[in-house]
Amino acid sequence: MNKANNLPVALVTGGARGLGFAIGAHLVHAGYRVILADRDGEAATCAATELGAFAQGLTLDVTSESGVESALDAVEAEHGLPWLLVNNAALMKAQPVLDIDIETFDAVMSVNARGTFLCSQRFARRLRGLDQGGRIVNIGSLAGQNGGSATGAHYAASKGAVHTLTKVFARDLAPYGITVNAIAPGPLDLPSVAETIGEDAAARIAQALPTGRMGDPTTIARMVVELARPDAGSLTGATIDINCGLYMR
Ligand SMILES: NC(=O)c1ccc[n+]([C@@H]2O[C@H](COP(=O)([O-])OP(=O)(O)OC[C@H]3O[C@@H](n4cnc5c(N)ncnc54)[C@H](O)[C@@H]3O)[C@@H](O)[C@H]2O)c1
Fold first, then answer.
1. Total number of domains in the chain
2. pLDDT tops 70 at residue 1
């Protein structure tokens, strides 16, 4: 809870733009104090300004152990521990498997898998002794379920790791009242898609979707709000598919 005014606090990684920003906006609307934490702290602060007085930006590199601890220290000192962590920060690179250099493989795995692990573990360690519960929502991907190749083997493998981490953390944190769920979006109507795979490929993907159009980021953001509800304590370990009907399991 927020120390000053009892608002629940949400920390959204990669919140400076795209889906993280949309999630932040919905959380503010739902009554949260939102921390948009991003490697690009300046962009996060600008983004927070757009969301008004109940949002603020924070510089955070999710791959850095000391960075994660300092960010949690800062949030805890100012607002109290967050109720909700949204692991949204990610790197997407479109490369055929035979062209991926090992530095890029490591960078993608580091942000997407290590970052999710690190933020979740350090957040949960702090919540553990408080007996107040909490919520973790991981943003996975359809690519982590079906091996989608458009965004590359490193991205797909890292999102597969996110889905598996979701299950392990859900089981281990359940006794503390901390739920852990993932959302696995298909292609979304966001700038990152065309930036990653190009305008033409993005248009072809949109046409090939059963719905004929890219997914709406607000649908994902609304799901985050639902998963974060205090009365959703029995919903844990799930991966929610929001993929325009592209993949049904
Ligand atoms: N865009 C899509 O179609 C799509 C589909 C499925 C899943 N997703 C997932 O949704 C999430 C958001 O995607 P997006 O399209 O908004 O991406 P984006 O690239 O627009 O935004 C990602 C944000 O993460 C930040 N970031 C990168 N590395 C970081 C680090 N080390 N520490 C902290 N912040 C870091 C970036 O600065 C950026 O603000 C990601 O997890 C992505 O994998 C996106």
1. 1
2. no
